[in-house]
Amino acid sequence: MTLDKNSTPRTTLLSVEQALDYIRATLHPVPGFEQRALRDTLGRVLAADVCSPIDVPPDANSAMDGYALRAADLPQSGEAPLQLVGTALAGHPFSGNVGNGQCVRIMTGAKLPAGADAVVMQEDVRREGDVIYAGTGHRQGENVRWPGEDIATGQTVLAQGRQITPADLGLLASLGINEVKVMRRLRVAFFSTGDELRSLGETLEEGHIYDSNRYTLHGMLSRLGVEIIDMGVIRDRREDIAAAFRQGAAVADVLLTSGGVSVGDADYVKETLDTLGKVNFWKIAMKPGKPLAFGLLGDTVFFGLPGNPVSSMATFYQIVQPALHQLMGRQEQPSLRLHIPCVTPLKKSPGRADYQRGIMDYDANGQLTVRSTGPQGSHVLSSMSQANCFIVLPAESGNVEAGTVVEVQPFAGLI
Ligand code: AMP
Ligand code: MG
Questions:
Q1: Which of 91, 200, 250, 372 has the greatest number of C-beta atoms within 10 Å?
Q2: Ligand 2 centre distance from Cα of residue 215 (Å)
Q3: Are residues 222 and 173 both part of a single domain?
Q4: pLDDT in tens, 183-203
Q5: E strands, 249-322, where?
Q6: 211 CB less than 6 Å from ligand 1?
Q7: Does the beta carbon of 230 sit less than 6 angstroms from any atom of ligand 1?
Q8: Whether residue 308 sits in one domain with residue 347
């Protein structure tokens, strides 16, 4: 992987789309795959196309409870008598042949007996002892599911890059596949920087706060199914920072940090990154967010997230998560966006794209609407906790009046 540090000058203000384009062009899936038992592959990414080893269904079978017969025996008018010669149940096929003038009682899912080419529903015939009377209006192939109708042998059922869902587990099981080749899990290490930060269990003294970013990061990364290496809180000291960067780069595919990337931060974070790797300090035209460091420490991809709790989450979802998907080898999927009325006014100054926190809900008329969570400061983490969507306001937008249709990005599907 190469990274041209000069192609995105440190001072450039990048749009979210520009940052994503740059990341897309720069990052490639990490090498390595493994064979895993089907049950262990939920959320994993397929390392190769999966082709069906069998036809589904494997045999012609009945779609209804009724009578399997030869379509040629059915009358042009009136009724034709057919002799009942046996029964076919799901899992218990009829071993004989259906001859001229004969039929077999058949249940849904049972294999179509040799000789038969149609199933007439039981409601459509009259039965007297071992003789049934079938009328007109039926055709060859009626109520028959043919072999390979759902999936044919050799057909690609799931493509490389697919992130396996519960339905996929069932689909693969239906093909008799019990082992799957998946990409190896991405190893992601992270730490927080800041002299003011204390870990849970420690006592807060004057000027201290608890580190929350490591917990949100832990949660967001857990959802992605990556391997997580939590390196704790690193003090704002040159040697400690340098040692942590080296250690993280040595063990992980991706190193994430939070804090220490905004203007005015101790210079040695940037200094250390300059010595150890190739890192750009971006200003992203998004709010909350803005400062983001992105680059390489050896082969390890590095993201330096802003320290403010909402900024670090918003930057993670909008920029880091798509990058991690790419490194995981996951096919790109568009994020769900809706356009719905916003029932509260929103404050915004033109310049950067806003990712305000919103609550989608149905109003009294059953119409889906969104409202603001309230104060939008980048330190107000409770806004992220209350929200179920981002309200995405384009850079050029100013204040939004109540009743305006806005774009929302639901968290469901995003996280
Ligand atoms: P920084 O980016 O280091 O200048 O931090 C910006 C703001 O975010 C400051 O108010 C920090 O105290 C706060 N902050 C930084 N890291 C964390 C963290 N891990 N958890 C909670 N707040 C943080
Ligand atoms: Mg700091």
A1: 372
A2: 17
A3: no
A4: 999 999 999 999 999 999 999
A5: 254-258, 278-284, 286-287, 291-297, 300-305
A6: yes
A7: no
A8: no
